[in-house]
Model the fold of this input.
Amino acid sequence: MTLRRRTLLRASWAVALPTLATMPLLADAATAGKKKPLKLRPAPQAPAFGERADLMQFADQQAAALGYDAQALRNLLAQARVQASVQRLILPGAPGQAKDWGAYRQRFIEPQRLQAGLAFWSANEAELARAEATYGVPAQIIAAIIGVETFYGRIMGGYRVLDALTTLAFDYPSPLPPGARDRSGYFREELRQFLMLARENGLDPLAMKGSYAGAMGWGQFMPGSWRKYAVDFDRDGHIDLINSPVDAIGSVAHFLREHGWKPGMPTHYNVKPPVDTAARAQLLVSDVLPQLDVNQFLAAGADLSIEGLGHVGPLALIELQMGGAAPVYVAGTQNFYTVTRYNQSSYYAMAVIEFASTLASWRQAGQSSAPAPAPAPTPTPAAPASGPASDIRP
Done:
């Protein structure tokens, strides 16, 4: 069918349909001008777990340890609802799907988020400085993580945490696609942590919202991390990562310090990887975990920057896929690895690091408006290497 014919057909229907729609009004002039309320069918609600045997067994076994009455915990968990979208989102991308650092970078290092970062830094300047002094983590790194995670509190997730965690703990997707692994045990523990967190803080577990994985608040802390690393940084007597950006600032800094952040150490250095494919593959074996020193990099044929040559401590060769183009590489330090403890992705870590650098530059220049930043020249292109690509999802 030609475009012109399709257009004419649409036009003829546009004339006819209003005529048909007005026929009842013409038949009953007494009701003309009176609109009947539009009846909308409510969206179907996700099914509740109810008194499913495995969930009720969990409640009975865990109630005492979690500080709950067994029947009360049964009643609570029975109200959790299976979330099919959570089951879809938790899985990695399709096998063989090309990763693209350039596209991933553009999702986060863009003017609106940077402008929001400048406003956040200005509003919380004293608290960010205090967190840096207390924990040794630069203010721009703290601000960048909060910006990348939630756009400074604008996007904190709309799933009921109880639904998300119960779904992933008891209805983890099966069968799993190639390369994926069953993480239901991890989420069962996070469900336990969530129930304790709610009880300890007087929170309503049915009201708390978060991401599809159950992460909450300005910094998207999982329940276990909240209980272990969150701090009362605003000194009001309780920890609130959902309503207190100041608590989030201190908690992000504390998390990074506890996971090995080294004050004053760069996150990465420029590097040209070995030309030899086998030598490059050998350097990539440890992924983001720094295990090789400068001499081992040089012996393998890598070309480190002058700053990198002076580094004391282990390094990791980080590969960032660029879709169909050649990958880019950096030599990651302990601090690069520490950022991946927040989200286990080298793409995420690099996005945080480059966002932090750009944000600090904008702030230093006193810019209230700036064009979209050009891709940073830090990573060095090299010939593609064979091997599996890492999951770039944040």
